Structure formats: structure tokens, C-alpha cells
UniProtKB/TrEMBL annotation:
InterPro entries documented for this protein: P-loop_NTPase, YqeC
UniProt protein name: Selenium cofactor biosynthesis protein YqeC
Domain of life the protein comes from: Bacteria
Pfam family of the protein (one): YqeC
Length: 235
């Protein structure tokens, strides 16, 4: 890829609460983006409004007050209530505005996709925190071309949304149509990121998705690798 930018350079301009939704790399974005922002001297909080596995190596607590003193002073913190039955964190007991007041950036995983590349949202999703400054929609390029029922979380909702059969391939154009129909991103500060797009074929699919989105929503589209923290702007 040419004109590569970094995940941290994409995240840094918009402070406050960022809700990360979709599939295919949300947890990686939180972990990688949070660490990179903190290494630049920013105070960062990671959390979820639904459920997520704790970020490895990072202490967590339900509230800011419950964090250990050394963790409370750290540039990167993690907040959430532990769900004993799953080992996942749920939403913090701390109000979102209090977390935002204590950190430069708050990265929030705002829905679940069960590890699948794409997501169709129910009427209860995503759980966008109050005061959210931007929404980032993540899609996984590994799902393009495979049957909808294999790669979309809640494929029946996707079927109903677009009037397609769930055994149809999840083409870039269909995924773009789903993003537009749900209307969850589209403000200028929002982003769409196609993750896992290092291979030439995946880059082609990501560009097709960007081409389908550009006439319909007013926000940038990036593609690349969240794990490597390297992306290229497509639109």
C-alpha cells in the first residue's frame, strides 16, 4: 500500500469518547490504539458498553476510584465490571461523562460480533455512550465473498435489512449497503475501517466498498491492518 498512515494518527485528532462498532477487529483497535495514544503522552481509558474480554496486561476496575493508585496514575487505564460467568468486562459503574473528564481519549467497544467480520445490528444495538464524539465502524476483509450466513453476525437481520438471501456472497457492495441502511456512521468525524486488508485481493475489495460508500455517507474510509497499526485512506 502507498500513502500509509498510522492508527494513532487517525485517532489523535478527535478527543473524547469514540465508540467502536461492527466486526473484524474492534478489540484490536482498542488495544493497539489505546497503547499508541498513551505512548504519545495522552491519558486514555478503554471500556465497553456491552461485553469484551479485558485487554491483556492492563489492570481494570468498575470505577476510577476502585483502580489501584499506580493504575489510576497510569496513562492507559481500563474500566469495566467483571462478569464472572464469561470472564468478560461489562460497562463501567463510572458515568461516561466522569470517564471522559478524567481522560483525553475514551475508546469504547460498543457492540459484539462473536468474532465475525461483519455485523447486523438489532434495535438494541449498538450501545453508543452519551457524549460520544465519533463512531468508528470496523469491517473485516476476510469475510468478503463468503456466504452471508458464515460471516455476518445476525445474518437474518442483514437479510431483512437488504432483502437478500443469507446464502448470497457478502460482496463489498452488499456490506456497504448494510452500513448505509443502518445509518450508524456518516458524520464527518466518523470513520469506516476495513481491517485485515493487507493482501492485494483484500485491498481490491476494500476499494470496492469505499467506492460504494463514498456517494452516500460523508466520512473517511480506511483500509489496512489494525494489528500492525497501518492503514491507507481510500475515500
Amino acid at each position: 500500500m502507498s500513502d500509509i498512515t498510522t492508527l494513532v494518527d487517525i485517532l489523535e485528532p478527535i478527543r473524547g469518547i469514540t465508540a467502536v462498532i461492527g466486526g473484524g477487529g474492534k478489540s484490536t483497535l482498542l488495544a493497539r490504539g489505546g497503547r499508541a495514544l498513551s505512548q504519545r503522552g495522552h491519558r486514555v481509558a478503554l471500556a465497553t458498553s456491552t461485553h469484551m474480554l479485558p485487554v491483556d496486561g492492563l489492570a481494570y476496575a468498575a470505577t476510577l476510584e476502585e483502580l489501584a493508585p499506580e493504575a489510576r496514575r497510569a496513562p492507559l487505564i481500563q474500566l469495566g465490571c467483571l462478569e464472572a460467568s464469561t470472564g468478560k468486562l461489562t460497562a463501567p459503574a463510572e458515568p461516561w461523562d466522569s470517564i471522559a473528564a478524567a481522560a483525553d481519549y475514551v475508546l469504547v467497544e460498543a457492540d459484539g460480533s462473536r468474532g465475525l467480520p461483519f455485523k447486523a445490528h438489532s434495535e438494541r444495538e449498538p450501545q453508543i455512550p452519551s457524549g460520544c464524539a465519533r463512531v468508528i465502524y470496523v469491517a473485516g476483509a476476510t469475510g468478503f465473498g463468503l456466504p452471508i450466513y458464515d460471516v455476518v453476525h445476525r445474518p437474518q437481520l442483514f437479510r431483512d435489512l437488504l432483502g437478500v438471501a443469507i446464502d448470497e456472497p457478502a460482496s463489498p457492495e452488499l456490506i456497504a449497503a448494510g452500513i448505509v441502511a443502518e445509518g450508524l456512521v456518516g458524520m464527518p468525524d466518523d470513520l469506516v475501517i476495513v481491517n485485515q486488508a493487507e493482501r492485494p485481493g483484500a485491498q481490491r475489495d476494500a476499494r470496492a466498498l469505499a467506492a460504494a460508500l463514498t456517494p452516500l455517507i460523508d466520512c473517511p474510509v480506511f483500509a489496512g491492518s489494525l494489528r500492525d497499526g497501518e492503514l491507507v485512506r481510500l475515500a
